[in-house]
Design brief:
91% helix; 6 helices; elongated; mainly alpha
Amino acid sequence: MTYPNAYEGVKKLIAAEAFQIISAGLGIVAALLGTAALAGATESLVTGSEGAAVGALAGGLVALLCGIGIAVLLVLSLIFTLLGLKRASVDETEHFKLAFTMAILSLVAAIAGAFFSTSGTMISGISASVSNALTIAVFVLTVMGISALAKNLGRNDMVSLGNVIIVIETVQLILAAIAKFTGGILALIAGILSFVCYIIYLVYLTKSKNMLES
C-alpha cells in the first residue's frame, strides 16, 4: 500500500459522507412533514377541524425530531471529516492540509452564525455565507487531494472523474445555499438533489479507497 494514511483518511471521509446521506434523507422527510404540518394547521384554522390540528401537531413534532437527528449526524460527519482530512494530509500535504484548515474555519464561521442568529444582525447571514463558501472549498480541495494521489498512481480515470464530481457537487452546494434563503419548494428540490449528489460523492470516495488499497 503506497499511501496508508490517505487510505485510512478516506475511510473516515466515507463514514462522514454516510452520515451526510442519512441527514439529507432526514432533511427531505422533515421538509415534507413541515409542508404537511403547515397545510394541516391552515386547514384547522379555516375549518376548525380537530383532526387536522392533531395531524399538524404530530407532523410538526416528527419534523422537529428529524431536525435534532440531522444536527447530531452533522456533528458526527464533521468530526469524521476532520479526522479523515488530518490523517490523509500525512500522505498528501498540499490539498488535504489546506482542506483541514478550511474545515476548521468553516466550523468557526458556523458557530459564529449560530451565536448571532437570535440577534437578527447581518453577522449571522455573513457567517452562514462564509461557512458555505468554506464548505465548498473543503470539498474541492478533498477531491483535488485524491486526484493528486490518483495521478501519482497512474489512475487518470480517477483524475477525470474527480473533475466531473467537482462541477456537479459545487453546483449542488451553491443551489443548497440559495435554498436556505428562499425556502419552500426550492428547499425541497435542493434537498433531493443534495441526497443524490451525496451518493455520487460516496461512490467516488469508495472508488478512491479501493484505489489506495491496491
